[in-house]
Specification:
The protein has about 220 residues and is an alpha+beta fold. It has one domain: Nucleoside Triphosphate Pyrophosphohydrolase (Alpha-Beta Complex). The chain has six helices and twelve strands. Strands 1, 2, 3, 4, 5, 6, 7, 8 and 9 form a nine-stranded mixed β-sheet that branches. The radius of gyration is 16 Å and the shape is globular.
């Protein structure tokens, strides 16, 4: 499976072009996919974010234990002002010092869960994803050597956990739910797994990742 994933991203992100794109080049580009693709009605232009977007990046960490692979996720602290208690990837907004999306993803993963950059093998990135809150998120994909001490950054991360890769890749687990938001019915992906409810942008990026790997694009 590792070989398949690496080959998928060699084709999808040649020479890691997406992973190495600077934030300034992404702020004025509207991503082809995002919350507007499913979460909100595309015909309602009033809900589209104005450019420039806020560049950010996340790491999709594929943890390796022999042939067993899983995705590492975090549960955001209840102390945070936005998206508190939600499940997310390690990541955040691009800093001025970050040369590109990969640098942001690796820095944030180190800050949030103490993941050393030397323990990550980056294989590429998916298309940027636009959130309803105006962020352009670059999902950077990498294999993680779990031989490090996980230390959650208490102000941001309440919990670190893993979901088996086979669960993510099974499209039977790609469920869609809806809710009323600002007077309109909105839809979003949900991965209910054990005691965790993975939904929204994180779930949508996992669905995109699964589709890429399953189709071997």
């Amino acid at each position: 499976m590792k070989t398949k994933i690496k080959r998928t991203f060699e084709r999808h992100d040649p020479v890691m072009n997406r992973a190495l794109t600077p934030a300034a080049a992404r702020a004025w580009q509207r991503p082809p996919i995002g919350d507007h693709s499913l979460y909100r009605p595309p015909q309602n232009d009033d809900l589209m974010n104005e450019l420039p977007l806020k560049p950010s990046a996340v790491l999709i960490p594929i943890v390796e234990r022999g042939t067993d692979l899983s995705i590492m996720l975090t549960k955001r602290s209840a102390q945070l002002k936005s998206h508190s208690g939600q499940v997310s990837f390690p990541g955040g907004r691009c800093d001025d010092e970050d040369a590109h999306a990969m640098a942001t993803a690796l820095r944030e993963a180190n800050e949030e869960v103490n993941l050393p950059q030397s323990n990550v093998e980056i294989v590429g990135a998916m298309e940027d994803y636009e959130t309803v809150t105006g962020y352009s998120v670059s999902p950077v994909v990498g294999f993680v050597d779990p031989n490090f001490e996980i230390i959650p950054e208490a102000r941001e991360v309440a919990e670190v956990f893993e979901v088996p890769l086979e669960f993510i890749l099974d499209d039977k687990n790609h469920t869609v739910e809806g809710m009323m938001w600002k007077g309109e019915l909105r839809h979003y992906y949900v991965f209910p797994h054990n005691d965790h409810r993975i939904w929204g942008a994180t779930a949508a990026m996992l669905v995109r990742f699964a589709n890429l790997v399953n189709k071997g694009e």
